[in-house]
Amino acid sequence: MKFFSVDSPIYKFMVTVKDLFLINLCWLIGSLPVVTAGISTVAAFDVTLRMVDQEEGYVMRQFWKAYKANWKQGLPMGLMAMFCAYILYLDIQINKISEKGSFTLIIFGMVTAFLFLFSFLYAFALAARYENTLMRTIRNSFRISMKYFVRTIFTVFVVAVEVAFFFWNMTTLFLGVIIGPAVVIYTIAAMGKPVFRMVEKEYGVTYQNQDTDTDAKEDTDIE
Q1: Lowest mean pLDDT: which of 47-51, 70-74, 209-213?
Q2: For 51, 94, 127, 172, which has the most beta carbons within 10 A of its beta carbon?
């Protein structure tokens, strides 16, 4: 029956859900020390970027291969992202306990949130896709976010809807635990992949999947 065919949309959807579940499981295990969450995120992006083009192969094997290959980039990036998020959290908490709040802190929080979001939205995906220094990767994420501002805002909106859904009730929260982070990462990868291709074309950067399952990465700096 066509319904059970490997080419049917239902079958492909179920395979994608299964792969996202496995990626999420690997992500959770790889993030257990907390400080390694950045490495897990880069590895998850490595797999989901391949999924967009249906080149992922065995997702768990590819995840741990990427995990080992990207720890030098993912570890400091994750720590930097957590530090920035903590600064934003402190700003929100200080405003909450203030009687009238602080206009300066509100502006500071808004600017911090904007810089944090645009600097790290594509950063982990860029780290998975290209060989680059930490600061250039973060800078490129910000520049890409600004250059493709409308797409960036739409991506943020879609991710926000997904997060809101996972926190809707206890049932969706459970679903969020077992698949949520992988869904968010896959969404950013799927919506960011066309942007990366445009950047590669514009700046002459090549990225090629090899039969050996390794990738040729190149440095690039977005102006």
Answers
A1: 209-213
A2: 127
The H-assigned helical ranges of the chain are 9-30, 37-52, 59-69, 71-97, 103-120, 123-129, 134-147, 149-166, 170-203
Burial per residue of 32-63, b for 16 or more beta-carbon CB atoms within 10 angstroms, e otherwise: eeeebbbbbbbbbbbbbbbbbeeebeebeebb
**CA-to-CA dists, residue 11 to 1, 4, 7, 55, angstroms:** 12, 7, 7, 17
The count of residues in the chain is 223
User: Hey, is 157 helix, strand or coil?
Assistant: helix
Owner of token pair 């405003």:
95
79-124: pLDDT as tens digits: 999 999 998 888 888 877 776 666 777 788 888 889 999 999 999 9
* Closest to 190 in 3D by CA, of 66, 47, 49: 49
The helix (run of H) or strand (run of E) holding residue 208 is strand 208-209
